[in-house]
């Protein structure tokens, strides 16, 4: 399994690019609590957007907005105080975005093959294989 760490100074741009390249892609979101219990929150819902909010000096938030089964409704998931983010890809093409945070670990599974190399301002290059 290929793994790529996303540095915290790049989270804003990563979220923007993730939205740009995966809007409409079907996602599954599950969480792993501090007790190790896994809970599936959503399965096969299209992504509307992923955002990173650093407006509060004490708490960062990554949010996922998905189009619900009844398209008039949005489903949301919030990752509070993220500490680590990485993308993993299996040989079968399944990709998992793993975000460890104060409120547990969030796993976002997606299959989009469209995720090109990202260029960040500090000249770091993060290649996410497709």
Number of strands: 10
Report the total helices: 1
The helicity comes to: under 10%
Rg over CA atoms: 14 Å
Q: Residue-averaged pLDDT, rounded?
A: 84
Name the overall outline. globular
Structural class by helix and strand composition: mainly beta
Number of discrete domains = 1
Judging by the overall fold, what is the CATH architecture? Distorted Sandwich
Quote the beta fraction.
Answer: over 45%
CATH class: Mainly Beta
Which residue ranges are poorly predicted, with pLDDT under 50 across at least 5 consecutive positions? 116-130
Annotated CATH topology: Protein Yojf, Chain: A
Q: Major sheet, described briefly?
A: 8 strands, antiparallel
Strand order of the largest sheet: 1-6-7-8-2-3-4-5
Our measurement of the CA-to-CA distance between the termini, rounded to an integer number of angstroms, reads: 12 Å
Order of helices and strands: EHEEEEEEEEE
What key phrases describe this protein's structure?
Protein Yojf, Chain: A; 130 residues; two-stranded antiparallel ribbon; 1 helix; mainly beta; 10 strands; globular; 52% strand; disordered C terminus
Describe the protein in words.
The protein is mostly beta strands and 130 residues long. It has a single domain, classed as Protein Yojf, Chain: A, CATH 2.70.180. It contains one helix and ten strands; from the N terminus they run βαβββββββββ. The strands form two sheets. The chain has an eight-stranded antiparallel β-sheet. A two-stranded antiparallel ribbon has the order 9-10.
